[in-house]
Design brief:
Blueprint (H helix, E strand, L loop, with lengths): L1 E10 L5 E10 L4 H11 L19 E4 L2 E4 L13 E5 L6 E3 L2 E2 L2 H9 L17 H8 L9 H5 L1 H4 L11 H11 L9 H7 L11 H5 L6 H18 L1 H7 L1
Parallel strand pairs: 1-5
Antiparallel strand pairs: 1-2, 3-4, 3-5, 6-7
Helix pairs in contact: 6-7, 6-9, 7-9
The protein binds iron/sulfur cluster, FE3-S4 cluster and FE2/S2 (inorganic) cluster.
Pathway: Carbohydrate metabolism; tricarboxylic acid cycle
Family: Belongs to the succinate dehydrogenase/fumarate reductase iron-sulfur protein family.
Cofactor: [2Fe-2S] cluster; [4Fe-4S] cluster; [3Fe-4S] cluster
Length: about 240
């Protein structure tokens, strides 16, 4: 079944504007298909970043009707045929052109997370327990689409926070390392607070809601990290020991 949809797509740089298009939609298509059809028929210079068209490369992140989404995983069938569909770039990062953002903030934050620090062990000297493998397994599903970063109000609405806040994706990376039994950098929760702004997260869970990999970022990474920080800082026995 084919119909004509009404699309509004951001064109240009930060001072650009929304442009209206009427474009063909066929059964089974996703929003990225429609953007490609616009490129092929009406707007050959429309910039969009994509790679896998399978929800795995994390490149096609944008906002559809104001919701952060992967364009290749957003089915046209979730919209009414007479609905206007507005496609805009991510709001939390500088715009390069049309639907393409400069996401280098995320790479800067990634480099600031201290690397895994393994102990000096010979092969076979340590047997990893299954429970330790499973604890952080879900965090490794991250495709680095940065939709959680785009959504988190701490940076989305406050550019000035970017310097001190690494965002849910990289706090989750710190949590993953903290949960690794062989990581020798034992002050990860303190680093999360001091270097990555863990205290600025007020557990709104918006990051978790938009994650296309359905990772429980808040419940399984950020809250445990906050609890471990609280244990270390305020445990009366540890306090005595530190003195
Ligand atoms: Fe994307 Fe989820 Fe990874 Fe965030 S945690 S970058 S939303 S896959
Ligand atoms: Fe932001 Fe997620 Fe915390 S949206 S405030 S990092 S729970
Ligand atoms: Fe790879 Fe959408 S094109 S996630």
């Amino acid at each position: 079944m084919t119909y004509q949809a009404h699309f509004r797509v951001w064109r240009g740089e930060a001072d650009g504007e929304l442009q209206d298009y009427t474009v063909e939609v066929n059964e089974g298509e996703v929003v990225l298909d429609i953007i490609h059809r616009l490129q092929a028929t009406q707007a050959p210079d429309m910039a969009v970043r994509w790679n896998c068209k399978a929800g795995k490369c994390g490149s096609c992140s944008a906002e559809v009707n104001g919701h952060p989404r992967l364009l290749c995983m957003t089915r046209m069938s979730i919209f009414a045929e007479d609905e206007t569909i507005t496609v805009t770039p991510m709001r939390a990062f500088p715009l390069i052109k049309d639907l393409v953002n400069d996401v280098s903030y995320n790479y800067v934050k990634a480099r600031e997370v201290r690397a895994f620090t393994p102990p000096d062990l010979e092969p076979g000297e340590y047997r990893m327990q299954q429970v330790d493998v499973e604890r952080s397994q879900e965090f490794r599903k991250c495709i680095e689409c940065f939709l959680c970063q785009d959504t988190c109000h701490v940076i989305r609405d406050h550019e000035e926070n970017k310097e001190n806040f690494s965002g849910p994706r990289f706090l989750m990376r710190v949590a993953e390392l903290e949960m690794h039994p062989l990581d020798e950098a034992r002050n990860r929760p303190e680093e999360a607070r001091g270097d990555h702004g863990l205290g600025m997260c007020n557990i709104t869970k918006c990051c978790t809601e938009v994650c296309p990999e359905h990772i429980h970022i808040t419940d399984n990474a950020l809250i445990p990290l906050k609890e471990r920080l609280a244990d270390r800082r305020y445990d009366p026995l540890l306090k005595l020991f530190r003195r």
